[in-house]
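Exercise 3.2. Students should predict the tertiary structure of the chain below and write it as structure tokens, then compare their answer with the key that follows.

Predict this chain's 3D structure.
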Amino acid sequence: MRLLRREKVEKKIAAAADPEEAIAHFQRLVEENPQDAQARFNLGSTYYVLGQYDAAARELEKAVTHDSDHLDSHYYLGLIYARRGEKEKARRELEIVAQKEPRLMMRGYAEWKTKQLDS
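Answer key:
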């Protein structure tokens, strides 16, 4: 059974014992293959977990540029845009996840977050 990608990122941060070490690790992976959407997601979601939302958005936007079906990146972008008050951008990202996500739980989260934008 595979872990959710965010859980993998959080475990990497915990294992590093130093968030900056985790960021350095993922930055190296991105430098080695800048078009790898998963590497960019790992870096972006690490920034997200650390509360560095602008840096997270930059990496996640690049991830979906390289792989428009990278649904975890769309989900985190939706959360970041919602946090910024950019409701239409948030809605667009979350609706992509709600429409394409095969994992029921993630699809449900995206639908729930989309409904929260209206309240």
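Discussion points: The domain at 5-117 is CATH 1.25.40.10 (Serine Threonine Protein Phosphatase 5, Tetratricopeptide repeat). The radius of gyration is 14 Å.
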